[in-house]
Each structure stands twice: as structure tokens, then as C-alpha cells.
Amino acid sequence: TEDLTKKATNRVWSRILFDLKEDVGNEIILIPIAVDSDLTSLNSLISEFNISSYPALIIDNKQVFSEIKSADELKKYLR
Length: 79
Hints:
Layout: H1 4-24, H2 40-48, E1 57-59, E2 63-65, H3 71-75
Antiparallel strand pairs: 1-2
């Protein structure tokens, strides 16, 4: 995308999720999927969790995040 704000947001998410993966290793699997993929399963999740802003993160089919500040913020939801 040419939108600098979106690029910056994606970079921040990427770094935070990388840090999280480094910290917890095999406890987490990250599967990035572009929202415009038009996948039935993805569309179902978007509808089920009422996700309207992106990027978004779903943890254990319970918690949905559309804003994150740190890997530590997410760790408490992983167990």
C-alpha cells in the first residue's frame, strides 16, 4: 500500500509479533492472511468476531485485538 500510516502500523505489528514469537517460541503459531483474500474461512472469522478494523489478531478463538502496544501485553492471553 502507498498509505504511509498503514505501512507504519504494519511494521509495528510485525515487530511486536516477532518479539512475541521470539519470547514464547512454539507456544504460538502466527498465520498472516491478507483480509482481501476472499477466503470463506477468513470471512467467517471476520463475521463471527465482528472485526471491522485491520490488522487484527485473534488469540485462542477468544480474544480479538485491533490495537497492540507490546508483546508483553499479549503474553497474558496465551495460557
